[in-house]
Amino acid sequence: MSHSIRIKLSPERISSLQELQTLTHTSFKDISLLHLAFVHRSFANEDSDRYLSDNERLEFLGDSVLGILAAEYLYKSLPKGKEGILAKLKSKMVSAPAIAKLSRHYLFPEFLLLGKGEKEKGEVNLNLQADCFEAFLGALYLDQGLNSCRIFLTPHFQKMEKAIENAEETKDYKTILQEFCQKKWKKLPEYVLLKEEGPDHEKEFLVSVSCEQYFQTSGDGKNKRRAEQMAAKAALQFLKLL
Amino acid sequence: MSHSIRIKLSPERISSLQELQTLTHTSFKDISLLHLAFVHRSFANEDSDRYLSDNERLEFLGDSVLGILAAEYLYKSLPKGKEGILAKLKSKMVSAPAIAKLSRHYLFPEFLLLGKGEKEKGEVNLNLQADCFEAFLGALYLDQGLNSCRIFLTPHFQKMEKAIENAEETKDYKTILQEFCQKKWKKLPEYVLLKEEGPDHEKEFLVSVSCEQYFQTSGDGKNKRRAEQMAAKAALQFLKLL
Fold this sequence. Notes:
The structure is a homodimer. The first copy, chain A, has helices at residues 11-24, 31-37, 41-44, 56-77, 83-93, 96-105, 116-120, 126-144, 146-185, 224-238, and strands at 190-197, 204-211, 215-221. By secondary structure, chain A is mostly helical.
């Protein structure tokens, strides 16, 4: 079945789409699919042939492409992860803010064709950013198959997973400690940076945390957040809460 | 990366799994994946090594496999379908009742290993039926890739799409006509079967619909529902509502 869309593209648009392929390290067999992924409904509405010419169908497909690749990535990367953990991580990795960030990384909003009304609003909103990323994935899937999409997404999933892990860890220990101190002593724990040393790419931070005279523990890490997190963890252990 | 799970299966289980492959027209390279797809948490809980040995992770993966194949099927089968229509059809095609029906079609519930408590409840509930179907898809995807899953699912998607279309059509015209008659004349339309002829595989039905003296129209179809639907459509056309 051919998915080719009979559209005559202007030389400017073709050159734009070539730039887009360079940015994404892709090479489309059918460039009209790539074009379509960046046609917003508001632009297509100014056209007569609406239903063949906006990116919503590709976005519908791309959403599922993103879903299976995120699920597969987590299934393989966390061989002992429980289903609940995988589902929670997946929902963060495919969330609109996470996807919109990738969209901006590739400058996708700049290639999106918008109608006059939408253009006048100024900046492309987060949902539109995320939508055209999904539409791009849908186009890549149709043009080149699942493995090309996998190659394209995997490095991003790796970064996301790391970022989420870091955020989770930090949030968890610090939040637990803060809630405990507030409840027990009506005080907040205080973090102090004790030391910061080493060259830029290999910095080591040492942080202490205390709450009045009740406890004082410390922790280290390759950034301040991580060191605070380790200090909070030590405090929780000291307080027999871990 | 290997997904093989080191499990020693009993000769009875192996023979069961062979039956399952015959029923599904599949042939697994790694039979322990197929086994795992049919291990419910309640059964694994009676084991010590819970997290390597139930089907929830495979179900997590299989859910996305189902998602992308349903999306792709609809994208290609309805080249002019709007995103809203595709999304609506997809949600019906991947719904628990629809998937549980497929699960029963392949007798999956009979192969599911349940814990004692779950077994005592008697019949395997609809969600468990659907879950093991998704887990099976996850296992098939890991063992044989997306295309095997596509080949497995496509004929089912075709049937589902037809069934949904029929149900939708019937519901639409008949419901519209009924609501109109109730509102305008405080009466319900009446359907009468006028004729039923032809051999079993090629039956033709003729149905009339009327509401007091206001109108009488008829419609035919290869089953009674379809004929009623066509009669209602004719009535709506007669009443200038279509």
